């Protein structure tokens, strides 16, 4: 906790000593805010004719109004932030889920490519066998039947 600060400030033409644990700049800023509120009202013609105790109450009400509006805005922003955090969480969850699906799909594609490669090799062998059989003068159906029998035995 920082040391207590005492600062002399001028509010509505009068010197006050403010004390607090905030810095001097902050306490001067508070005094400037109050002076700005007083200056706002001093510009109004009707305000000049109001008794001084009512003037003080009017400024206090105005400052309380500013406070509650600011507090409401902070609460709204906190709710918005909470909603955005939830959306980010959901998006991260979706991203991870999609990454898992992508990895699974990539593995399936790899397996299918390997199976396709094997089928292409078998096709090439069968074509070579057929061509060889045709060149040797054998009937292709005899060769196919022999090949089918061999495949059945392998399984």
UniProtKB/TrEMBL annotation:
Phylogenetic lineage: Bacteria, Bacillati, Bacillota, Clostridia, Lachnospirales
Function: Activator of cell division through the inhibition of FtsZ GTPase activity, therefore promoting FtsZ assembly into bundles of protofilaments necessary for the formation of the division Z ring. It is recruited early at mid-cell but it is not essential for cell division.
InterPro entries: Bac_CellDiv_Activator, Cell_div_ZapA-like, Cell_div_ZapA-like_sf
Principal subcellular localization: cytoplasm
Subunit structure: Homodimer. Interacts with FtsZ.
One cellular-component annotation, GO: cytosol
Basic and acidic residues: compositionally biased ranges: 135-155
Designated name of the protein: Cell division protein ZapA
Domain of life: Bacteria
Compartments it resides in: Cytoplasm
GO biological process: division septum assembly; FtsZ-dependent cytokinesis; septin ring assembly
Keywords: Cell cycle, Cell division, Cytoplasm, Septation
One matching Pfam family: ZapA
Gene3D superfamilies to which the protein is assigned, alphabetical: 6.10.250.790
């Amino acid at each position: 906790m920082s040391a207590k600060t005492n600062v002399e400030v001028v509010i509505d033409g009068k010197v006050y000593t403010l004390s607090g644990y905030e810095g001097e700049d902050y306490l001067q800023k508070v005094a400037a805010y109050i002076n700005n509120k007083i200056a706002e009202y001093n510009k109004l013609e009707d305000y000049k004719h109001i008794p001084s105790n009512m003037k003080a109450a009017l400024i206090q009400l105005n400052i309380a109004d500013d406070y509650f509006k600011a507090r409401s805005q902070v609460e709204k922003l906190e709710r918005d932030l909470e909603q955005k955090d939830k959306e980010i969480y959901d998006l991260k969850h979706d991203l991870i889920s999609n990454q898992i699906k992508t990895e699974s799909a990539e593995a399936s594609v790899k397996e299918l490519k390997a199976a396709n490669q094997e089928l292409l090799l078998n096709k090439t062998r069968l074509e070579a066998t057929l061509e060889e059989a045709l060149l040797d003068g054998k009937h292709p159906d005899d060769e196919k039947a022999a090949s089918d029998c061999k495949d059945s035995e392998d399984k």
